[in-house]
Amino acid sequence: LILNTKNLLHIEDGAFRNLPRLKYLSICNTGIRQFPDLTQIFSLEAHFILELCDNLRMTTIPQNAFQGMNNESLTLKLYKNGFEDIHSHAFNGTKLNQLILKDNKNLRRIHNDALRGATGPDVLDISSTALESLPSYGLEAIQVLNATSSYSLKRLPPLDKFSSLLEAVLTYPSHCCAFRNLRTEKQNSLLSIFDNFSKECESTMRKPTNEIFYRDDSYNTSLWSAEKNMYLFATDEETSPYSYSAIFDDSEMTGFDFEYDFCQPKILTCTPEPDAFNPCEDILGYSFLRVLIWFINILAIAGNFTVLLVLITSHYKLTVPRFLMCNLSFADFCMGLYLLLIASVDAQTSGQYYNHAIDWQTGSGCSTAGFFTVFASELSVYTLTVITIERWHTITYAMQLDRKLRLRHAVPIMLGGWIFSILIAVLPLLGVSSYMKVSICLPMDIETGLSQAYILLILVLNVVAFIVICACYIKIYIAVQNPELVAANKDTKVAKRMAILIFTDFTCMAPISFFAISAAFKVPLITVTNSKILLVLFYPVNSCANPFLYAIFTKAFRRDFFLLMSKLGCCKTRAELYRMNYFSAYTSNCKNGSSAPGPSKASQALLLLSALEK
After folding, report:
1. Fewer CB within a 10 Å sphere, N or C end of the chain?
2. Chain segment 75-104, per-residue pLDDT in tens
3. Has keyword Ribonucleoprotein (predicted)?
4. Do 270 and 354 fall within a single domain?
5. Domain region containing 42
């Protein structure tokens, strides 16, 4: 034992030479900078243990560092050192039983050929290291893998490299999804074979110990007892009703050991198990959602971009309704970008999300997507509420020009909405809830009271906004229902338009709010998998419908659209027709306004309908 010698800075080459009876060597808590020469120990013991620990100045495990250790079973406990990398062929010539590399906080790299030339290890422990990847060579013999608190290990090597793995203790639940898929595939294949001879197995076996299936040099699979040094079941069909070499293929047995007391396979186990927030599935879960989300996000992006382009390039004066519509279109455009980002990542990681989950959910991509969706949804709801109140105000005070809402009033109102929406979207980035909880990057973390209050605040404000919108439209409907102002057919038209506006708002807000509020109180009524249906089918309803209901279906927008197209050399006839109709309506309105000292009923009706049309 060489312990607690901080002044020991170097061990001469050959210091450990010809020690045939050495069973255990420990070098811990020293000041050694260079890896000691261990190649000349030549211990004859079958089982040898080497312990290197707390040597914080030792930064590298060099090539052929353990080459002289030819023991039948070698255990290397190399923990709590200053290792930063392990070189190629570092374990060359060894027969590793256990390789313990835990608590090497600075260990970031193991060369891809570090285990080349070695047999084993059966147990690999890389917990609490900074490793970003495992070597793809030399993992075939590992039966136990411990990688807890290895937060930098976000991707696993190809699963076929872990051909002997029986137990995995990992950091991220998503990695266990990979082994679950492998386990299910192998289990279904092997259990179907076991059903054919389970009765024969149960009647024949007599609680053997240390038995395992091996594949010999002739590639015949048979049951071998290492302890008894004999085949328990002959492969001759005359002595046994089953020829194991014919029944089993080595590839079918990957990931399984056997408990012959029960004639059942011992299945690969992996922890931590995926939880309710991160089930073993792709980002969108269902195949039909993968198709729908592309249609919906393209519709939202194209519709809102068109509205923004037409409104911004219009040569008409920027009115309050136009200004508010620009804000609404921008918010809904951001929602389309969120859906596009989710759809793109889902397409890229389909079938292998488990290997990308950590990079996605902890990276800037998911944070950006989460910011977009919360900012867009809150700004959209806020702007919809302002638009509705503006319409109600315009109709209620139609004849009182001094109370008309001006652009100088609308700008600070919307500035407040932008500040509020940005603040709400930034809070999860500052630790109030989190966008990293689920693959769809919504703030579903309610572990703390502050996070729970944050979610409830958003939901309550959305419900209040919906109530305000409904109340304003009911008042508008009552106002325009006056038969002295609007004809019956106009009344029906207005009522239908209001019903559609309220229905789309309700369709978007009600299901989301209902299930989200129950989840915020930690009584979830729907799984994350099923919530993705709400995400695609209900959540973006307003973003798709708003550009059509508030802009594209209105006469004012169609006029601006055809005027813009005429500038590009298209639809000149339609554009000229809209110019003539607009000029005619303007001239008629001026004549009616000057024929009487006060506003007529017809002019009042025209103002009411124009407010709704906007």
Report:
1. N
2. 999 999 999 999 999 999 899 999 999 999
3. no
4. no
5. 1-193+266-274
